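haha ok so turns out i had the wrong file open the whole time. this is the CORRECT one, sorry everyone. sequence first:
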Amino acid sequence: MKRILTLLIILLLSGLSILALVVFLVMQGVFGPLPSLKQLKNPNLLQASEVLAADSTLMGKYYRVGGNRSNSNFKDISHYVIDALIATEDERFYKHTGIDTRSTLRAVFLLGRAGGGSTLSQQLALNLSTDRRASNLGSRFIQKIKEYIIATRLEKQFTKQEILTLYLNTVPFGDNVYGIRIAARTFYQKEPSQLKPEEAAVLIGMLKGNSIYNPRLHPNAARDRRNVVLGQMEKNGMLSSSTASQLRALPLIINYKKLDENNGVAPYLREVLKEELKDALEGLEKPDGTPYSLYEDGLRIYTTIDPNMQSYAEEAVAQQMPLLQKALNRQRNIRTGSVWKGHAEVLDAQMKASDRWRNLKDEGLSDDEIKKAFKRKVSMKIFAWNDKREKDTLLSPLDSIKYHRQMLQTAFMVMDPQTGAVKAWVGGINYKTYKFDHANLKTKRQVGSTIKPLLYAQAVEEKGFLPETPVEDIQQDFGGGRLVPATTQSCSGDTITMASALAWSKNCATAYIMKQVEPENFTRFLGRIGVPTEVEPHPSIALGSCDLSLYEMMWAYSIFPSGGISTKPYIISRIEDRNGNVLKRFEPGKNRKEVISEVSAYRMYQMMQGTVTVGTAKGLMERLGAAEMGGKTGTTNDNADAWFMGYAPQLLAGTWIGCDDRFIRIESGLGMGSQAARPIWEAFFKKVYADAKSGVKRDAIFNKPPELLINTDSLVMKELMDAGMMRTEDENPEDLNNPKAVMPPNNKENRNRDPKIGESRQPAEQKEKKGILNKIFGKKEE
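then structure:
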C-alpha cells in the first residue's frame, strides 16, 4: 500500500512537473507566440470599413472574408444580450478570474455531458488567437494551456464589461457575420441596443452552433435553442417565470437582410467610391507605420449622399424605366430579333466574355461546340421589372445575352450646386445584374442638345449676347464643305432671338452662334467650366456630337445655378479611423472657381426657363409648382441617347437614358429627352418638394444681380410663362446627310457612336407674338 501511495505521489509530481514545463514552454513561445499585452488591448481583428451617408445612415461596407465586423460599446448593447450570454455561456462569470475551477472539474469528470468548462474569458482567448479549435488531443491540450494563460491576462487587464464587449465584438454568427452589431443588423435590422429579450436569445443561442441554430436556415432548431436560452435567463433570475413563458410561446420572427455589394444605399456610388478611396488613402499611415487597408481596418467613410434623396432618385427611375422598356419591347425589330442583324460581333464578344464560355473552354470544347451550347435552353434567372428584380425562366444563354443587352439603362445624379456635394447617384437600373456604372466620369455618351446652354453661356459672357439678341436660323458654312446642320430641313431662314433659339432647341440658330464663338474657343471654354474630356474643335459640337459623361455635364452645368461658379461634384466629406479620429477632410471650396459672371449666369437662367415653360419640356415648372427653375432636353440620332439637365436654386440634377449598344433605341417619340429622361427628373423633384424635411423649397428663387434689377429683362420670363397659347414641338433629331461636318474624324472618345447628330423639327405654325415677348423670343417660323 505504501509503495502504491509513493508511486501515485511520484506520478502526480511528475505530472505537475511536466505540466509546469509545458506551461513554461508555452509562455516562452515554443508552441507559437502568445499575444502581447499591447495586442490584447488592441486586438488585430479584421474589421469592415463602413460607408455612411451625410446623416450617418449605414450605406454599405467593404470587408474581406472573416472581416464583416463593426464594434459596439458596452453601453450600446441591450442588457438582454448580456444577460442571455452570461446565463447561457458562463453563469459564474462575475465570480471567477478567468478560469472557473468548478466548471472545469465538472466538465472533466462528466466528460462534458453537463456543459463545457470554458469561461467567456477562455472563449475570448480562443477568438483572439490565430488558431482554430484544434482537432487532435495533443494540440488541443497545448491550446487549452494558451487559453488559460490568455484568459488570466485578460482578467487582469480588463474589466468584466470590457471582456463582455470584446467577446461580443469578436464572436462569429455564421453567414460571414461577426460581432453582435452586424448580427443585430443582419437578422433584425436593428442596433444591438434595440434588441428585445427573445431576439437576444436567438442570437446568443446561435453561439452554440451558428449553422445548425441559424434562424434563416433552421428556424425550428433556432426556436428551440432560443427557448433554452430563455430558460437559462429565467433560471438565473434575469426573467420572471411568466415573462419567460410568454416569450417561449412566441413564433420565431426575423427580418433578415444581409448588407452586401448588391444592396444597401447607392450601390453604384459605393463601387465608384472604392476607386476614389484608393487615392484618398494614399500616403496615410496607421500608428505602426503601415498603410490603411480599406477592407481590414474599420474605416468610417462619410459621404455626401442624402439617403432620402437617394431613395427618391431610385423610385423615380423605377417609375419610368419599366414604361420605356415596354415601349422598346413592342418594337418590331425587338420582337423579331432583327435589331441584331449586322451586329453578330457584339454577341460574339458578349459570349466570349462570359463565365459560361470560359468554363466550357476549360472543358476542352471548340468554339463551334460552345456556340451550339449557347443555343440550348437552360433554367436561369434573368432581370425583370418586378419587386425582386428577377424571375426564373427557360432561355438559351444566347437569348439571355440579347435579352439583357436590350434593357434600357439610365444614369441619374443630384448635387448641391453651391458646394458640389452629390446628394443622389444612380448608375443603372439594377446593380446586382448590371454592374456597369453609367454616371461616373469615364462613362461617356453623345450629349446632343444639352451642350447648347454651354455654348450660349460663352456667347453671353464673351460676345455680349443677350436673350433678345437676333440670330440667324439658317444653315452655316464653316468652310471646307463643313455645313452645320448638314441639311436645311429645320432651318426657318428667319432671324429669331437667342432666347427663342434655346427654348426650342434650334440647331440652325445654334450653328450661327457657334460661328460667332468659334469651335476652338468653345472647346477651351468647356475645359474651363470643368469638362476633363478633350473635345476636338469641330463645328458639329454645337449640336452635341461629342461624347461626355453625366458627371462632366453636372460639373459644367453647375455654373448656372451657382451664379457662374464652376463646382466639381464630390462624394466624400471625411474619413475616420476605427476609433473616430479624422484622417482626412474634403473641403468643397477647393473645387470652385468663377467661370462666367453672375449676370451671365442669370441671363442663362432666364433663357433656360423657357425650356421648362413653353419649350421642349413645356409645363414642367408649372406642374411642379416651382417659382424658378431652368433646364435643357437632349436627344441624339434615332433616340440613341435621351437627356435632361435641369436645376432649381437649391439642386442640380441630370439624367441620361439609352442602351449600352447604341443601335438599340426607342424609335417612337417616347425615346426623346423630353419624354424619356425628363419624367425621371420631374418625378424626383416632385418627391423632394413634397418632403418638408428635405429643405428644398418650391418658392426658392435665384439671386438676381444688382445690375439687372432695373432691367426690362425681368419681364421676359413672365411673359414667356404667360404665353400659354404658344405651341412647341419636342426635339426630334433626324439623321444628317453630311457626316464630314458632324463627325470628328479622329475623335477616339466618339469611336463607338453614330456618325451623325440630330436636329430639331421645325415648330408648328403660330400667330406672330407681340410686345417684349416678340422682341425677345422672335417670330416663330411659318
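The radius of gyration is 34 Å.
again sry for the mixup
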